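note to self — DONT lose this again. spent like an hour looking for the file last time. sequence + predicted structure for the chain T wanted, 216 res
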Amino acid sequence: MRAPIQPILGLAELLRRRISSSAVGGSKDIEDVDIIIRNAKKLLRLEQNMLDMTKIEDRSLKLDKEKINLIESIQHVINDFDNELSKEKIQLVFIQPLEKEPIFVNADKVRISEVISNLLGNAIKFTTKEAGRSITIKTQKKDRQAIVSIKDTGSGIDPDIKPKLFSKFATNSPGGTGIGLFICKSIVEAHSGRIRGENNVDAKGATFTFSLPITE
């Protein structure tokens, strides 16, 4: 899957830059190219999820751990979703520790970014198309754990799905595969962390939270 998707994405992004800098073409052309880019990125995430699911099932998923700043990893993922958030008119709030204090964890940077990307992608997908759409990402340190929560204002977790939320193929979303959360759980637990999802008590939507051990 990756072989044909990469050139589609690369050429679409090049075309978008040409349209943006040219007098020829307009906002409608840019919107059409953005649709191609957005869906190509979704296919890449799907391809990665399918590959990871196979590795998890045959226990061949390997972690390349190093000391990373979790704050930087989250910010990089947010930047990757910038166009999609803008297109969907969703406000994203990133709440960091005081004075933007770094949070260091011993982790596989690519895999943890994959967890954040899956959770943020789900939050965008399920946030309802109403005024005041927002997603809040909050990071904190507590009891030597780095805690990351992603809160949306979407439709919330279906009660029928809740008991098997992190199981493989658990979804009632049209077009959803139901493997993203399964992979998130496997990656987080492989880092000696924990993950959970709950409906918001004070508002609509849901919050997904995962924790990782802090390293000095």
